[in-house]
Amino acid sequence: MGFEEEREAAMAMVWGDGNATGKSSKTKQKRKKDDTKADDESELSEPEEKKLTANAKRKKANAENVRERTLHIHIDNTADRNDVRTLFEDYDPKVVIEKYKNIKRSGKYALVEFKTRAMAEHARQRFDGTDQKETLGVEKVSMTFCLSRRASRRQQTKANKVKKAIIKSNYEQSKLKQG
Question: How do residues 125-173 score in pLDDT, each as one tens digit?
């Protein structure tokens, strides 16, 4: 074995399969990568599929959480984003103002996204139904959560159960008074 052959062998050990200069054929590498990608795409292992579905579920849950902490507020056409921010300055929310796009309803509304659902609940309890003629141009502020259909159904069923329980207790109390 000559000096050149030893050098090539040492370089091959250092750089892997390639020529003596350490540069491997890029077309061979691309072919190998393409082959492995095709194999990977054709057969995903079961844990990888579960990971993909888990990621999709997580993204959906995050979107649902954003909806649960976003309030929809009707405002006057003259009100702007800073007016809404001044109303909720204690909460430091993200504010987006849009116009209604249907013919039946004209005007603007604000989507106010809070950091947590508790902040949104507190702001709703504090400002819902209040007179904000000076800031937002509305005499009675109406706030609703931007929930998905499923979440709003859940919330409505809970509210209905509470109403039924109140009605039932009132009915039983009136029976006791009569009897």
Answer: 888 888 888 888 888 888 888 877 887 888 889 989 999 999 999 988 8
Strand order in the sheet with 108-113: 94-99, 108-113, 70-75, 143-145
Amino acid type, 123: A
Instruction: List alpha helices for the chain, DSSP H.
Output: 3-15, 26-42, 46-68, 81-87, 117-127, 149-178
- Cβ-based neighbour number of residue 124 at 10 Å: 18
State which amino acid sits at residue 66: V
C-alpha span between 135 and 73 (Å, rounded): 13
Secondary structure class of 23 (helix, strand, coil): coil
pLDDT in tens, 37-49: 555 555 556 666 6
Are the C-beta atoms of 134 and 87 separated by less than 8 Å? no
Residue 126 C-beta-side C-alpha neighbours within 13 Å: 11
Angstrom CA distances, 60 to 23, 56, 67, 118, stand at: 46, 6, 11, 20
